[in-house]
Amino acid sequence: MAKRREIEQILRKTAIEYGYMEIATPIFEHVELFTLKSGSEIVDQMYIFKDKSDRELALRPELTASTMRMFLAEMERAPQPVKVSYFGNAFRYERPQKGRFREFWQFGAELIGANSPEAEAECVAVAVMALINAGLKNFKLRLGHLGILKGIFKETVMSESSQVNIMRLFDKGIKEELAFELDSLDELSAEQRELLKSIITTEVSTVNLESFEPQFMQYESSASAWRNLAEVAKLLKLFGVPVEKMEIDLTIARGLDYYTGLVFEIDVPELGAEKQVCGGGAYTLLELFGGKSAHTIGFAIGFDRLMLALEEQNRPFDLPKPVAYIIPVGREALTKAVEIATELRKNGIPSELELKGRGPSKCLKYAANLGANLAIILGSDELAEKKVTVKDLKTGQQTKIEMDNLLAEIRKSMD
Ligand code: ATP
Ligand code: MG
Q1: Are the C-beta atoms of 386 and 336 separated by less than 8 Å?
Q2: By alpha-carbon position, which residue is closest to atom 15 of ligand 1?
Q3: 160-172 and 146-154 helices, crossing angle to 10°
Q4: Beta carbons of 248 and 144 less than 8 angstroms apart
Q5: Most exposed residue of 2, 39, 182, 207, measured as fewest CB within 10 angstroms of its CB?
Q6: Is 276 in the pocket of ligand 1 (CB under 6 A)?
Q7: In this structure, are residues 276 and 302 in contact, taking their beta carbons and an 8 Å threshold?
Q8: Terminal alpha carbon distance of the chain
Q9: 101 lines ligand 1 (CB under 6 A)
Q10: Are the C-beta atoms of 39 and 256 separated by less than 8 Å?
């Protein structure tokens, strides 16, 4: 748990550095909150139950919908943009496996009420910087824009269901199946068919984005989506996202969720099948919940997967250890020993007191095991002299010092 807490704190601190205020929302909500907007996959995975008044409730499968509800209830009149972050558990009825649990934790952020490439880039940067700050070394940010595919669809006579099906195949990323499906769709001209196929094979370098001329530029809304995407990618470099970690991936469809424009995913190759540690994008949901529509961009990092990834990449952790282990030798030394422990703790020095009344040699072994730096030994001699014996557990060096100097000596040893 100490490792999780350390990373949790880093994620929270990153959000604060970017001005995202932390919020907390309830663990269960009315089921409609989620069925109104979440992707069908998530709705199928929900834990639903009835309360004593026969209301249908759901354990939250994610925190975005709750954030929108809270925004409308409490923050709608606040000056925009409103920037919030959360760290909470979510529940999905899925087949548990490595990196996929029925209860898992998400750290996320939402930027509500700003429609600009810089707002989008900032939110993506928060996700990436949170991961970098947490110590994640190897990962890939993939950026895409749903407007590109949708812009092409708009120029065709494709039915809604064909569009959804093709988006699903893009999301799954199975080239052969997609090509087969496109070939058998008579709602497409030969040219449109080839254009859609080209999306899956196009490799875009993030280094010279400006000079890249995608084939779909003839379609006005695809072209404007592309320009938006290119601008965000350009800004991301300025926001400090390393260019070699970035990739343009025009096939991202985000599991047919509620996203409308920019979309992004972050993968960690070491995680294998469940390699996605973060997903996000731009959307407008407020109008669905009875509010005024506002451009929103958000993301959620899968905290449990991030922890697995950090373990895989051997991130070193400094686990909390006591600085001082205080050993009273004999009952008469106990009062003073407790006083010393209390005094050290008051001064912010993590300290432990021998609680089993063991003899010094056993205590020293135990203290070394805990990783304590110093043992403070208090016997009858020391009591009489108003001194303590301080043993450095790393070097084995032992000195007797005035009790009154103990705090200063410990502080010196910590520098
Ligand atoms: P996946 O495709 O892996 O099922 P998702 O698209 O359903 O992910 P999102 O709804 O975007 O995931 O949630 C954001 C992040 O939460 C994911 O990138 C992932 O890291 C994490 N996550 C999602 N479901 C689980 C789960 N069951 N257990 C652990 N982490 C999860
Ligand atoms: Mg899923």
Answers
A1: no
A2: 302
A3: 150
A4: yes
A5: 2
A6: yes
A7: yes
A8: 27
A9: yes
A10: yes
What's the order of all strands across the beta sheet hosting 296-302? Answer: 21-22, 82-91, 103-112, 296-302, 276-283, 262-267, 140-145, 246-248
Work out the average pLDDT over 92-116. Answer: 96
Question: Which atom from ligand 1 is nearest to the alpha carbon of 277?
Answer: 20
Say how far apart CA 352 and CA 341 lie, in whole Å.
Answer: 7
Q: Which of 258, 255, 209 is nearest to 235 (CA)?
A: 209
Contact of 3 with 303, CB cutoff 8 Å: no
Half-sphere exposure of 278 toward its Cβ, with a 13 Å CA cutoff? Answer: 34
Share of the chain above pLDDT 90, in %: 74
> How many angstroms separate the alpha carbon of residue 50 from the centre of ligand 1?
26
Separation CA 167–CA 149 (nearest Å)? 8
Render pLDDT for 161-213 as a digit per residue (tens, 0 to 9). 888 888 888 888 788 888 888 888 888 888 888 888 888 877 777 766 777 77
SS3 211: helix
Distance between CA atoms of residues 270 and 18, nearest Å: 29
Tokens for 311, please give them: 């373990």
Q: Is residue 341 within 8 Å of 165, Cβ to Cβ?
A: no
Ligand 1 in reach of 106 Cβ (< 6 A): yes
3 state SS of 392: strand
Note whether 60 and 90 are within 8 A (CB).
Answer: yes
Q: What is the C-alpha separation between 193 and 178, in angstroms, rounded?
A: 11
Report d(CA 191, CA 48) in Å as an integer: 46
Residue with tokens 């960690």: 268
Residue nearest to atom 23 of ligand 1 (CA): 302
**Cα 96 to middle of ligand 2, angstroms:** 11
Output the CA 236–ligand 2 centroid distance in Å: 27
For residue 87, which phi and psi values (nearest 5 degrees)? -140, 110
The DSSP element (H or E) to which 126 belongs, if any, is helix 117-133
User: Which two tokens mark 374?
Assistant: 């110093």
Question: Which of the residue ranges 32-41, 145-154, 274-283 has the most confident prediction, judged by mean pLDDT?
Answer: 274-283
